[in-house]
Write a structure and sequence with these properties.
The protein is mostly helical. About 50% of the residues lie in helices and about 0% in strands. It is flat, with a radius of gyration of 35 Å. The protein starts with a helix and ends in a 13-residue tail after the last helix. The mean pLDDT is about 75.
Length: about 110
């Protein structure tokens, strides 16, 4: 098993070459995102967690209030708009004439 061919194949006994190539660990860095510059992101990270949590809760309350207000105004419009849509489903041109089968056209048979 430990023949010269195997040792050559598995790179054994090559002392003159360096042992193993070392890979570099990827460096972490931060980029700006859409709507926020890098400075803004750093400021937000530097804030105390309590302040961030308070701001998050305030934003959630505001969003919930906006959502509930939106829900109050839309039902009146929604009921009126939904009725005409359910009247009849659109049918493709060929399907109505052919009896619903969207198969191949038969050019050879004449009626």
């Amino acid at each position: 098993r430990w023949t010269q061919a195997w040792r050559r194949m598995n790179k054994k006994g090559k002392v003159d070459e360096q042992a193993k190539k070392r890979t570099r660990k990827a460096q972490k860095f931060q980029k700006a995102i859409v709507g926020m510059s890098l400075d803004d992101i750093k400021k937000k990270k530097a804030q105390k967690p309590e302040l961030r949590q308070a701001a998050k809760e305030a934003a959630a309350k505001e969003a919930k209030a906006r959502q509930s207000q939106k829900a109050k105004t839309t039902p009146a419009k929604g009921k009126a708009a939904a009725a005409p849509k359910s009247k009849g489903a659109k049918v493709p041109k060929g399907a109505a004439a052919a009896g619903g089968g969207g198969g191949k056209k038969d050019f050879k048979s004449k009626k």
